[in-house]
Specification:
This protein is an alpha+beta fold and 805 residues long. It is built from 19 helices and 36 strands. The strands form 8 sheets. A 10-stranded mixed beta sheet has the order 23-21-20-12-11-10-9-5-4-36, covered by helices on one side. The chain has a 6-stranded antiparallel beta sheet with strand order 24-6-7-33-34-35. The longest helix is centred in the first third of the chain and has 27 residues.
């Protein structure tokens, strides 16, 4: 084990501590071999089409163009991964900034980015060096006092390095729980640790993707629906782009801000999207401690010392840095939560795959270059974008689904032992059932990840491998288990349980996806011929038709018509008006839908356990008929008997009336895009999975790790969803793309729902949001002639080539 040393010489390598070179000092040097040069053509809605002779110059053009639109967002994340938020912003509410800095420094994000860079191909390094240089050129030309947006004139806006850029795209889950944790006997330590339950507040993506094969399209070729559900603010927004190296690369799509290349998109041969997976990316370990030695633990037949990592954080307004010690086992950092405290008997450590993903940038480049579905499969298999399903289609019409290739690599023996512990050990069982935590016995070497220092993780030897499915009709994923990528081709077998459960309940949104894909009544998404064209894909995803309303509303309406009275808290409530509103509702969540809000608030009166997919749950108070794994698309269904449904309808109406909101209010009067203030733009779509709608939004759910000013609002008493600002959409449908391959190549339509620019003074701050509100899709310009016919601004950027040290 390493000895205690400063952050400057320690980084986290797949959960273990190893020496790493410092990223401090002169960040770059001029490479006299040449210059960067890229041409940027901005078309309608501010979309950049970037052309360069090589990857280095392509990255340079992309970095420059992205800084024009989102310099503040990138700068904000650079401050985060440098561990300097407290330096510029103070401790923050509840020591928020301080805790973030402590964890980031202890985990060694920037130092690890440097060590990862050493194993990358030179062209990948040049690509990202170019991006950083392009960003820096824009900043130099503009000056921090004139950059657009919320960071103008701030002293935390400065030139960046490639290490900054690489680290900025890595998450730091469990930050506060790591930073707060101290050994028993230390002031504030042990069972007295402030609960670090942010450990369970992991980034929540959603999304859905359809890959339609030749048997299900009118063209007889491939088609794709990409609908990632991501935040509408902060660094996890998408930025749309078209990247071209003549004769070598021609790819279109989007990636999260600060990440070069196309994450979701297409080229002439293949189109692909990603969805958040249920696969586990991390494992927790309980280590038994040596008596009287709270930082020494048993492992196999020996004892091991924890490694202290000393961190010093500068804090604005304080003369001395805050010094903390973060403790690591060989698995990773010690973490303390209310349910898993560090006591004199035991401590808990976490190992997370996302803390080291050195192949991610090569994987993006390989997917962008893919000339066939086989190429794309290799790119996905050889990389490690942790936690994402892939849904892809080839131009000739083969549809493919794959679960993430990288999960904690436990042996068969370890998995069998963990499953046995789940049955007999109540803590292990509760960790899984309540929070989907894989809790392992850290004293037993059996539970090690196999080959944890390699750059790619894999599944246990002898298992069926990575769950995947190729078909000529369709595959899909809507954050449901890998088990059901197609209802007639279930992925059952000897897969690692860390990929997720089999024979498990789908969310209502996932069920709605299948019903649309199978052209079931009343959706009839593919029309009379049962095959999709591009327009039908577009219409399906924005139909906003509620499956939950189809399943429950008829009986709810029948009951409230027959018995228009409910008793709530000893008070009689007349339901006749509420019942009439639901009777007139079109079962859609469009801007002008009246009844949608009342139905949403009615669903919100039920606990999450009545909707929970995948975990054991008590008998539903909402559905009469439970989940049947033999019929996963159509169960559960029917309204549960009893008076609770009418009581909850009365409560829902009461919530609205107490706020002075009409119970037949149009959805658009409450659901809007607060990130686009001072304009008020109404937004359509469902809210979460409960309503069974493809076009998903969320209020006050952003998974934000940003300091960008956002319009958050407190919840209204008695409601699960309604806030003082209505339903502010801070998360949901983002880069929404429908594509079909034709005899002339790819043809696609899209929205970037929150628009291309983060500058409130830009015309491209709200233009696509307004299109989305009207459901007016815009064409993607991919062909050179189409781009040339729509150029609004063309410019060339150049500068000395810089190679990072």
């Amino acid at each position: 084990m390493p000895t205690a040393r400063s952050f400057a010489s320690i980084s986290l390598f797949a959960g273990a501590l190893v020496p790493a070179a410092s990223a401090q000092g002169n960040p770059s040097a001029v490479d006299t071999a040449g210059r960067y040069e890229a041409t940027i053509r901005r078309t309608s809605y501010g979309i950049p089409h970037i052309v360069a002779a090589d990857l280095a110059s392509l990255g340079f053009g992309e970095g420059y163009a992205q800084a024009e639109d989102h310099l503040c967002t990138i700068a904000d994340q650079v401050v985060r991964v440098r561990g300097e938020r407290a330096k510029y912003f103070g401790r923050g509410e509840g020591d928020r900034h301080l805790l973030s800095d402590i964890a980031v420094k202890a985990l060694g994000a920037r130092a690890d980015a440097d060590s990862s860079r050493a194993v990358e191909p030179q062209e990948a390094r040049d690509w990202h060096d170019g991006f950083a240089a392009g960003y820096n050129l824009y900043l130099e030309r503009t000056g921090k006092d004139a950059v657009p947006g919320w960071c103008r004139g701030q002293d935390w806006v400065f030139p960046i390095t490639t290490a900054d850029l690489a680290a900025a795209n890595r998450p730091t889950p469990f930050a506060a729980s790591i930073a707060r944790t101290r050994p028993p006997g230390v002031p504030g330590g042990g069972a007295g640790n402030p609960p670090g339950d942010d450990a369970l507040e992991l980034p929540q993506g959603a999304s859905q993707g359809w890959a339609l094969g030749r048997d299900l399209t009118e063209s007889g070729r491939g088609a794709l629906l990409a609908n990632p559900h991501f935040p509408w603010g902060g660094s996890n927004r998408f930025w749309e782009k078209h990247l071209v190296i003549p004769g070598k690369l021609d790819v279109y799509g989007a990636a999260v801000i600060g990440l070069p290349g196309v994450g979701i998109g297409f080229n002439e041969a293949v189109a692909w999207t990603f969805t958040t997976s249920n696969a586990r990316q991390f494992t927790f370990y309980r280590v038994d401690l040596v008596a009287g030695r709270p930082t020494r633990y048993h492992y196999g037949g020996e004892e091991r010392d924890m490694t202290p990592v000393e961190v010093a954080v500068a804090v604005r307004g304080e003369s001395e840095p805050v010094r903390r010690t973060v403790w690591f086992t060989h698995y990773g950092p010690v973490i303390s939560m209310a349910a898993l405290p560090w006591t004199v008997e035991a401590a808990y450590a976490v190992r997370h795959a996302a803390w080291r993903s050195p192949n991610r940038r090569q994987q993006i480049l390989a997917t962008n270059r893919a000339g066939s579905l086989a190429d794309l499969k290799r790119a996905v298999a050889e990389g490690m974008i942790a936690g994402l399903n892939t849904v892809a289609v080839s131009a000739d019409g083969l549809a493919w689904y794959s679960a993430p290739p990288g999960i904690p690599n436990l042996s068969r023996e370890a998995i069998a032992a963990w499953l046995e512990r789940r049955e007999r050990d109540p803590v292990t069982r509760a960790a899984w059932q309540n929070s989907r935590i894989v809790l392992l016995d850290g004293t037993d070497p059996t539970f090690e990840w196999r080959d944890p220092a390699v750059t790619r993780l894999s599944v246990p030897a002898g298992a069926d491998g990575v769950p995947q499915l190729e078909r000529s009709d369709y595959v899909f994923n809507a954050n449901n288990s890998f088990w059901l990528a197609h209802p007639q081709a279930l992925l059952t077998g000897d897969y690692s349980p860390l990929y997720g459960d089999q024979r498990t309940e789908l969310t209502l949104r996932a069920r709605s996806n299948v019903l649309h894909l199978t052209n079931a009544n009343p959706y009839r998404a593919a029309g009379d011929d049962g095959k999709f064209n591009l327009r039908e894909i577009q219409d399906a995803v924005l139909a906003n038709h509620s499956l939950t309303a189809d399943l429950l509303l008829p009986e709810l309406f029948e009951r409230c018509t027959a018995t228009p009275l409910a008793v709530v808290a000893g008070r009689n409530v007349d339901l006749s008006r509420a019942c009439a509103v639901l009777g007139r509702w079109d079962r859609r969540f469009d801007i002008d839908s009246r009844g949608a809000v009342l139905f949403r608030e009615w669903l919100g009166q039920y606990d999450n356990g009545n909707f929970r997919s995948g975990a054991p749950r008590i008998r539903s108070e909402l559905f009469a008929d439970g989940f049947d794994p033999a019929d996963p698309v159509n169960t559960p269904h029917a309204l549960a008997p009893g008076t609770l449904a009418l009581e909850n309808l009365a409560k829902a109406a009461g919530v609205l009336e107490a706020r002075g909101i009409a119970i037949d209010v149009a959805l658009g009067e409450l659901q809007h895009a607060p990130t686009k203030l001072p304009k008020r733009i109404a937004v359509h779509g469902g809210l979460g999975n409960r309503e069974g709608i493809l076009n998903l939004q969320n209020a006050n759910l952003g998974n934000f790790n940003t300091l960008e000013p956002l319009q958050l609002a407190p919840r209204v008493t008695g409601s699960r969803f309604l806030t003082e600002a209505g339903y502010p959409v801070l998360h949901g449908s983002s880069f929404l793309m429908a594509l079909e391959y034709t005899a002339d190549g790819p043809r696609a339509m899209a929205f970037l729902t929150y628009s291309q620019s983060g500058d409130p003074e830009s015309p491209h701050f709200t233009d696509q949001t307004e299109l989305f509100a009207r459901k007016e899709w815009r064409p993607i310009l991919f062909r050179a002639a189409d781009v040339a016919a729509d150029v609004k601004r063309e410019y060339t950027v150049s500068g000395p080539r810089v190679r990072q040290r």
